[in-house]
Amino acid sequence: MQFPLLSKCLRLQRICSESPETSQHQKIQLPDFPSGIEAFELCVKFCYGITITLSAFNIVAARCAAEYLQMTEDVEKGNLVYKLEVFFNSCILHGWKDTIVTLQSTKAFPLWSEDLEITSRCIEAIVSKVLTHPSKVSLSHSHSRRVRDDISCNGAESQRHKPTTKGWWAEDMAELRIDLYWRTMIAIKSGGKIPSNLIGEALQIYASRWLPNISRRVKADKEAAFDSDSDSAGEVTSKHRLLLESIVSLLPSEKGAVSCSFLLKLLKAANILNASSSSKMELARRIALQLEGARVSDLLIPSLSYSSDTLYDVDIVLTILEQFMLQGQSPPTSPPRSKLGFEKRRRSRSAENIDFEFQESRRSSSASHSSKLKVAKIVDGYLQEIARDINLPLSKFITIAETIPDFSRLDHDDLYRAIDIYLKAHPGLNKSERKKLCRILDCKKLSVGVCMHAAQNEKLPLRVVVQVLFFEQARAATAGGKVAELPNNIKALLASHNFDPSKPPGPLSTTTSIPADDQWSVSGLKSPNSRISTLRLKLAEDDDLDENYMNPDGMERTSKFKAFCALPTRPKKMFSKLLSINRSASEKN
Q1: How far, in Å, CA of 303 to CA of 313, rounded?
Q2: pLDDT of 497-512, one tens digit each?
Q3: Among 74, 347, 416, 578, which one has the highest count of C-beta atoms within 10 angstroms of its own C-beta?
Q4: What stretch of H or E contains 125?
Q5: Alpha-carbon gap, residue 559 to 257, rounded angstroms
Q6: For 117, left (φ over 0), alpha (ψ -120 to 50), or beta?
């Protein structure tokens, strides 16, 4: 071993002095040397006075090697450790991109970098630059050229250029591995100077850099795992899971800092990667806060559960909807229904007071009401997509549809389309199930075009078809329009169930041949106070009717059809075209 090397390396001096060998040529082994051959060669060149090349790419390896060889000031003034520290502090940390590259290179020497505070100093330098005005930050020449040139502080200064946009730092930071990125972002957020929307944009850039096409990746990894006995696929999935959960933990708390679409993509990735329940719930909660900004396609999260055969994970979407409704930001759009014990007291209040309270409650949360209208549209579109899944249980379809309050749907056209798609995809539904499905539909909220389609839809229960026809013709009559005759195909449909609008039948009774599930009881009444006849329609086996109330004449009616009694004479004459009424027989009842 030559003298110049020993004179600057304290560790080599101690090894030689402790060696039992007395010959001039001693063989020294350094099994725990932290850096590679290039770093050792750099140290040797320095000892022999040969010019060395330093850059952001090799500064960490050279610093760890010099520290291992103990090339400190205690051995000789101006030793390599001192010179590397001067270069690191005055040049590397001064440039933005050089700092990023140096921090990234610490992954090869994590323990040494932590002990020498290289990692922490790089993070502090990055944070200070992010919090500084962009015009005062220099981007180093060395990294932009991507070559390992000899760098001097003067050279870096002369070639620097300035970032111009507020989020200029996000793209470069996206190159960091997740543990370093997480520490840096935590420090940036704690500074309190960066707006939450810029933090959100940076997280989206990072996620797009490291989590693109995650579903394809995991699928390929799983196929590789089946083909081999290696654990590589599981390791890759575990790394992606850690990365995803770290991103979730960095999400700003402010609403709107990240888009709802981005949150749903994270949730989809969390579902695929089998992330922790806490991460999924946090994403569901955040999505619920801005659900009105979601797209139907983003809600179609693939189901990977072994306990379910459905194409999409409807349970997580149901959780999101429940979280959305739990916000409690919007009151109902009509005065709350009173309990039976307070019925009389409630009814004694004036309509003016009720209307005033109603308008005040709506005014206090009009934005929330608007968001619920948008969410209702999204949910109906989502129902149309999942309705095509032949494995989707009826109960889940109905539960999702009923999660949204009735006032949020200004019309039921989209809901009807979803029901129609579900009926077509599930032809095996029995009569009871079809009737249960159609109970979520409000025929009064169907447009004219949808009513015409529903009236000719053979998959709908007959009671729904008749109800659609009644409301449509009642609406036309109320609007002063001409009541048209029923189309021939509709007449044929009614005739197939023993409804013949061309012939006035006798009074309907329990002995009629109409199936019990589709039986309607129709009778005509005359009020003693006026000559306007009223209708009483009773579904024989409809188990979702509202509570009954008693008329002064002792006849029981359902609250669901109270509004029918207020219809003018013309709609009732019109409805008699559909179901002829034997008034004389009804009066006897």
Answers
A1: 4
A2: 555 444 433 333 333 3
A3: 416
A4: helix 118-130
A5: 47
A6: left
